[in-house]
Amino acid sequence: MPSERRLWKIVFENFLKSIQPKLKEKPIGSDAQGNKYFELEADPQGGRRLPRRWFVPANEESSVPTPEWSQWLRGRRDEPPTSEEIAHNEAIANMKKINAENIAQKFRLTGSTDKETEHPANSKGFPDMSDKFERQPGNLKSKIK
Question: pLDDT tens, 78-90?
Answer without folding.
Answer: 999 999 999 999 9
